From TrEMBL:
GO molecular function: ferrochelatase activity; heme binding; metal ion binding; peroxidase activity
Organism: Streptomyces filipinensis
Residues forming coiled coils: none
Subcellular location: Cell envelope
Superkingdom as given in the UniProt entry: Bacteria
Disordered: region residues: 1-24
Descriptive protein name: Deferrochelatase
Length: 427
């Protein structure tokens, strides 16, 4: 896991965001919080607590996180190349019995309209819940995809991509089918938890009578700006997660991650395929290992992500380097060795995961781990060969368990005035 995730983006300092449309006049929540340190919540010697005091609006925001905005319309859908967000929701829906192509088209039009408005920091088009009132866009992204079963339900079997064939079984799979797959997939990410939940609720409500929720998962990452300078994210094992992630500046990035404009089927031009895996980390077992033992499993230093062969996080790993006893410094079954693209026929995928924690089992074992999401132009050349290689001898395998899985075709971005998937559903 740790060798292919996106380094956290540094949130730029910016001006106070304009109030969201429909939020009303008056002091915003953000400005009010920004003044609390000077004139707001006060604890007196007598132990009395004074509530938020009325204060004049300030010109300096508490933070710029809320003002950052991603664009809904574009060549690619949002939520693929953006930096990791602090909060995420993944959800899958099934079309209801009797709903077909017409109902699906109407649903995707509603969802696209809703996504465009919410990503701009505006209220939902119908019955807005006010959950995100006074908040800015907070880097909200909403991404839509189609599962294998969607095409049969809409009479579009001939348009189903070959790349959407079901993933093979892997030895580490302990899959809960009720929390896997689905006709439609939605990925929501934002840097504010209320903004993310607001989007999730709006998307669910807009499903109306056309689709019902199949499963939904909640995730999180470090909040942008929480560190003194941009750093690669850490997962719940404490490891830097994403050192070797492909970068948009790479010359072969688009070829590896996105379906070409001339690709097949035509409706997937500029799209990508998302593999989604709920990977439970067996943290009680992992945390019993010493730090050197954990580093041997991964093949990198826990402190800074540097390869065991030396250097810093970005130093190329020397797989041939041996110690005084003649043993490889990076063990043969180390996760970082096995996942290297040059050891997998060049296979690469863009990882964009969220951590999750869903409480504890009856015996106190944490139900926690990674909501793994990876993007590639073809999963049979991206995720599958790497996972097969991991299946045959990854040292990390005994400390993780794959509990849910999905594969979704994510079409390219919608043009202004269009909706996601329009070429498929109206072509």
């Amino acid at each position: 896991m740790p060798d292919q995730s996106i380094p956290e983006a540094r949130t730029p300092e910016s001006a106070v965001p304009e109030p969201a449309a429909g939020s009303g006049a008056g002091i915003s929540r953000r400005v009010l919080l920004g003044t609390a340190g000077a004139t707001g919540l006060v604890l007196g010697a007598a132990g009395g607590a004074v509530g938020y005091a009325a204060a004049p609006a300030q010109t300096t925001p508490l933070a710029s996180v809320g003002s950052d905005r991603a664009m809904f319309h574009g060549k690619h859908q949002p939520g693929i190349t953006e930096g990791l967000q602090a909060r995420g929701h993944l959800a899958a829906f099934d079309l209801v019995p009797g709903a077909g192509r017409k109902e699906a088209a109407a649903l995707l039009r509603r969802w696209s309209t809703t996504a465009e408005r919410l990503m701009a920091g505006e209220p939902a088009p119908h019955d807005d819940t006010d959950v995100a009132r006074d908040a800015g866009p907070s880097s909200l992204t909403i991404t839509f995809g189609f599962g294998h079963g969607f095409f049969g339900r809409t009479g579009l079997d001939k348009q189903r991509p070959a790349a959407l064939d079901p993933l093979p079984d892997f030895s580490s799979d302990h899959l809960d089918r009720a929390r896997s797959d689905g006709d439609l997939w939605v990925q929501i990410g934002a840097n504010d938890a209320l903004v993310a939940f607001h989007a999730l609720r709006a998307i669910q409500k807009e499903a109306g009578g056309a689709a019902r929720l199949r499963w939904q998962m909640n995730g999180f990452n470090r909040t942008p700006g929480a560190t003194a300078h941009p750093l690669t994210a850490r997962n719940l094992m404490g490891q830097l997660d994403g050192t070797r992630n492909p970068k948009p500046a790479d010359s072969d990035f688009d070829r590896r991650i996105f379906v070409p404009a001339t690709g097949e089927p035509a409706w997937m031009a500029n799209g990508s395929y998302a593999v989604v895996r709920r990977i439970r980390m067996l943290l009680d077992d992992w945390e019993k290992l010493s730090v050197p033992a954990q580093e041997a499993v991964i093949g990198r230093r826990k402190s800074n992500g540097a390869p065991l062969s030396g250097g810093d996080e970005t130093t190329p790993m020397d797989l041939e380097k041996a110690d005084a006893k003649g043993e490889y410094v990076v063990p043969l079954n180390a996760h970082a060795r096995i996942t290297r693209p040059d050891k997998n026929g060049g296979a690469a995928m863009l990882r964009r995961p969220f951590s999750y924690h869903d409480g504890f089992d009856a015996d106190g074992t944490p139900d926690a781990g990674l909501l793994f999401v990876c993007w590639q132009a073809d999963p049979l050349r991206g995720f599958v060969p790497v996972q097969r290689k991991l299946d045959r001898g990854d040292a990390l395998s005994q400390y993780i368990r794959h509990e849910a899985s999905g594969l979704f075709a994510v079409p390219g971005g919608a043009a202004k005035g269009d909706y996601v998937g329009q070429q498929l559903l109206e072509g």
